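tool=predict chain=A
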Amino acid sequence: MTARGRVEPRRGQRSPRNRRWGTERMERYVCIHGHYYQPPRENPWTGAVERQPSAAPYHDWNERVTAECYAPNAAARILDGDGHVAKTVNLYARISFNVGPTLLSWMESHAPEVYRAILDADRESRRRYSGHGSAIAQVYNHMIMPLATWRDKRTQVIWGIRDFAHRVGRAPEGMWLPETGVDVETLEVLAEQGIRFTILSPHQAVRVREVGRAAWEDVGPAGIDPTMPYRIPLPSGRAIHAFFYLRPVARDVAFADLLTDGERFTQALLGAFDGARGRPQIAHIATDGETYGHHKKFGEMALAYALHAIESRGLARLTNYGEYLARYPATHDAQIAEFTAWSCAHGVERWRGDCGCRQGSPEWSQAWRDPLRLAMDWLRDRLVPRYAQEVGRYLADPWAARDDYIAVVLDPSARSVERFLRAHAARPAARPLEDDVRARVLTWLEVQRHTMLMYTSCGWFFDDIAGIEATQVLRYAGRAIQLAQELTGEALEPGFLQILARARSNLPERGNGVRVYETAVRAAMPRARA
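tool=predict ok
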């Protein structure tokens, strides 16, 4: 941190009361959203996270990012004029945030102090922000929603809501869409499940109008005004709200050097306000939460400084999205650009094709993404009818049961399992299912859980199919294949690998997807170690 990242007032700074806009300052609001997330990393056969050498000196990437980001964000330091720590603050209580459910599950066991600090922060934020908690939910395992089936979209949203309520102790007002990937069907599912708002990039809006008017207007080259919420009317007659964040500021936070100077960060946020608008305004950004400390060292200190400076000088009021929407309901409607996301300039092609979006290695091809997704889709589509037919013999509605299976994931105790099976039994008055039938039903539900986990977005995001993220989703596919074969005797692996063979690694020694599967998936199976 530079000296300008400390909390002492700058010499010659005027009181906010002396500024021309001083009487309006409480109608200026600032909200920072952090999307805190790591992909699930557990070995599907053992449930343990194995050592990841690339995360050294830590055991794995969850541990490393927790040490560099998640823990420091719960106790961010603010320095005085002498460079001493004046105070520490729990940033989660002052910003808007979501934490991935699978990451929270890991934290609960492996970083319980951080886990408790995050839950405590939501309770504190409710006191700060008129009863509106700063935590919002997330789609369960970071599946790219526009590329998902309707059934998977519904289960992912329900699981995300149920996991959130189980941990936070209340229903979520908002929900984070992975990579802000959006289509109308996804918004319909969110609205159906009681979600009030989501957060999108400004390029994902195409038309606007005042609420109550019939005619739409294109947002034009200048883009949508990000300083107010929008209502998105849906074909069903429902509606959901969206906040379109300040993209230039968010970009400079995530990819430039704005976090090296807390004062510049403060002024960048305040620069979004325009007195000529003549209405309340919200200056807000959304970035990966890992930006604050992991991607940008000491970034959490810059964030703590900016929030302190804004609040202590009366430059604006800190808020979260739920509070702001309650205070200032949307006056305008918006239409979205479907099949778009914040991290792909080509819609959602980054998760199914060689669109040119990558982390590095410009000479590498990402043509492997298409056959990887095709193999996953092939497997999913063969397992769906088998699941519905088999489980439908014993449970009244296999898909309602899958939606509710999160109760067993969160609490796998015998009492929880018994309660779940009784609630979904095809004939509730009949005697309990036989042990072998219970085992088959629960195994089929595990097959479905793994077929959703295999769509975790990180599997396609990076540069090669041999990376740890792609091999992780292949492990989930391998586990689903193995369990399904145990249940049906049908060998699905050959058909899966036939498609996967078309996925060529950029590393000659790794060959293609089949070779990656053999070395990274079969090697993870306990039987392969015998």
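Residues 369-391 form the longest helix (23 residues). DSSP finds 19 helices and 14 strands in the chain.
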